């Protein structure tokens, strides 16, 4: 079931980006995970894609809150970036995702008050606190592309599998999917333009990481 859902999700995501040079997840063929490969030593920052598998509206909300909170913390580090574009992007993530977290927490209080709201979240991004300059920007972009891909997958899975019990949650999932898919494209362009590199992710049920393109 998980492999089937992942295939449906990544197909739907890729269909919206066929003009891109590389779309994360386009070539996923199984459930194994691999870390993004990058010139800044991107090891261990994308632990796994288990957060991308949701089986209920409640599960989507608690996972997405934890996922957003990690992104908010990482985006706050961009206040130290030398690039105005990155500082503005960090501010946008903090503002947008903080508002969405507040909205989702309100829904949990209203609809699922009898449940804990807790989730065992394994971080997907590395610690950026000691990085600066180009190293900070490149590490953030590499990590956040994979992080955004997880949110797109979760949102699309909720929609494709018709898991939402409330129209408000369905609309939020659509907003997250569309917003973060556009941001992935933007971050891919920045990696290419500023660092002459890209972000690739190869999945296979029987083998390890595929080559980065």
TrEMBL record:
Domain DUF305, first and last residues per copy: 58-191
The superkingdom of the source organism is: Bacteria
Q: Spell out the Pfam families in the cross-references.
A: DUF305
* UniProt-recorded name of the protein: DUF305 domain-containing protein
């Amino acid at each position: 079931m998980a492999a089937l859902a992942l295939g449906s999700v990544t197909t739907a995501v890729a269909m919206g980006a066929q003009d891109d040079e590389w779309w994360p997840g386009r070539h996923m063929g199984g459930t194994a995970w691999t870390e993004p490969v990058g010139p800044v030593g991107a090891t261990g920052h994308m632990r796994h894609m288990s957060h991308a598998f949701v089986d209920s509206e409640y599960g989507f909300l608690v996972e997405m809150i934890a996922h957003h909170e990690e992104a908010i913390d990482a985006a706050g580090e961009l206040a130290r970036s030398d690039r105005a574009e990155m500082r503005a992007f960090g501010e946008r993530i903090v503002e947008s995702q903080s508002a969405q977290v507040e909205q989702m927490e309100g829904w949990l209080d209203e609809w699922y008050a009898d449940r804990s709201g807790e989730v065992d979240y394994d971080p997907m991004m590395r610690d950026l606190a000691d990085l600066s300059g180009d190293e900070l920007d490149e590490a953030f972009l590499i990590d956040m592309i994979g992080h955004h891909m997880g949110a797109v997958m979760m949102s699309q899975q909720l929609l494709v599998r018709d898991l939402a019990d409330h129209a408000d949650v369905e609309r939020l999932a659509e907003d997250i999917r569309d917003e973060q898919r556009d941001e992935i494209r933007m971050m891919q362009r920045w990696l290419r333009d500023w660092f002459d590199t890209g972000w690739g992710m190869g999945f296979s049920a029987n083998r390890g990481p595929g080559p980065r393109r």
